[in-house]
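Project channel, design review

CF: Before we commit to the Subsaximicrobium wynnwilliamsii constructs, I'd like one complete example in the thread so the newer folks can see what an input/output pair looks like. Taking Lipoprotein.
RD: sounds good, go ahead.
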Amino acid sequence: MKHVIITLGLLALVGCKDGKNEETNTKTEAAKPSAEATNEQNNDHSDKVSNVYQNAWTNEIVMNNGNKWQADAPTNEGVQKMQNTMKTQTTSTLDAYHKLAEQLNDDKNNVVKNCTMQGASHDNLHIWLLPLMDKIEALSETKTVEDAAKIKQSIEENINGYNTYFK
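CF: and here is what came back for Lipoprotein:
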């Protein structure tokens, strides 16, 4: 999407010349993404893609002085609903995986909407939740059953990991 915007911007600058070539050239150069910025975008995409298969969030999340964090009832109920969705929905086709992603996204949205947690417990919930959101999005966009199965496994590990850190 950024590339489309940049390209359209470049076309607008080149197409709207009014005899000020130097000014146009300066604007055009400023609008071009640097090689460094392009590499950062590619690295961000690669990191996001590799994270959908892993559970690196477990390296960041912490316990509450050795105990589980107290979560609010809406969050616990929402996570329980996600766990139930994972157990009950069969996934043998790509369409079924996409439907699973849609249901998990609805369940996740209810957790986000109804959560009343604050402070350190809420911060740790985000460490758990943000990678899960990326995984659900990746599942909804996957193009193969094989990839979908790997992402589903990672989602299941992520969702079940909730009970290790929250009560």
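RD: helpful, thanks. The chain has seven helices and no strands.
CF: Residues 1-35, 37-47 have pLDDT under 50 and may be disordered.
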